[in-house]
Amino acid sequence: MHRFFVPPESIASDVAAIPQPQARQIARVLRLAPGDEIVVLDDTGVEYEVVLTEVDAKGVFGKVVDQRPALGEPRRRIVLYQALLKSDRFELVLQKCTELGVSAFAPFVSDRTVVRESARGRVDRWRRIVTEAAEQSRRGRIPTILDPVTLQEAVEGPSGIAIMPWEDERDGGLRTTINQALAEDDGAPDLAIIVGPEGGFAEDEVGFAREHGVRVVSLGRRILRAETAAITAVSAVLYELGELGG
């Protein structure tokens, strides 16, 4: 069934009123009709099964016939601190990491960040991307796009364990893995992943992160692009937490 996020006030008792632009998509693009079923989400982690009763491009109405917890939400809140990348690469990270289960994204600028123009003008587009990805991947909540932060704030902000992938990570000549870093996990509600820009983190940035308790880890012997590193790190963390295939 097609899935649509709507404002919470769109669902009252057993009636769902689907506003624009979702109504136009239902009527004009998908060409659904009364009697068809959709899933409506109010960004609370609950999904509502709705049978359409009125279909018009200006507004769609339906009857709620069932409600249940959305099963696509991870048990832990994963916050991805991602250094700003060129727009298409950053948007790829938003889309794919939403599909995987990231709960919030916080862009930041580090020493080697190539893209330094303001991110604020792009936030509306980013929100559309994560909303569509959340609908497609059966999420029950839309990931939050946090205000841009500094690397210092990214390092000092997380309340729980924080992991930083770095291509030059070595501990006594051996690579520290995500599995080893999570062995020290204290189970705090939030878990942060801090991923650098196209040029990677500078050594002093990594040193600063270590001083503040960030677990610096390796993603293997190969050098990954920044967007690949983000997707890989998120996947590995969620796998270790039992969220992928468990």
For the CA atoms, what is the radius of gyration? 20 Å
Largest sheet: 7 strands, parallel
General form:
elongated
Oligomer: single chain
Count of individual domains: 2
Q: Give the class from helix and strand content and strand pairing.
A: alpha/beta
Helix content: 25-40%
Low-confidence stretches: none
Instruction: Summarize model confidence as the mean pLDDT.
Output: 91
At the first level of CATH, the class of the largest domain is Alpha Beta
Count of distinct strands? 13
What name does the CATH topology of the largest domain carry?
A: Alpha/beta knot
Please give the count of helices.
7
Give the H and E element order: EEEHEEEEHEHEEHEHEHEH
Which CATH architecture of the largest domain is right? 3-Layer(aba) Sandwich
Distance between the termini: 25 Å
Q: Superfamily at the CATH H level of the largest domain?
A: SPOUT methyltransferase, trefoil knot domain
Strand content: 25-35%
How would you describe this protein?
The protein is α/β, with parallel strands linked by helices and 246 residues long. It has two domains: 67 residues, Hypothetical PUA domain-like, domain 1 (Ribosomal Protein L25, Chain P, Beta Barrel), CATH 2.40.240.20; 164 residues, Alpha/beta knot, CATH 3.40.1280. The protein contains seven helices and 13 strands. A hairpin with a 4-residue loop joins strand 4 and strand 5. The protein is elongated, with a radius of gyration of 20 Å. The mean pLDDT is 91.
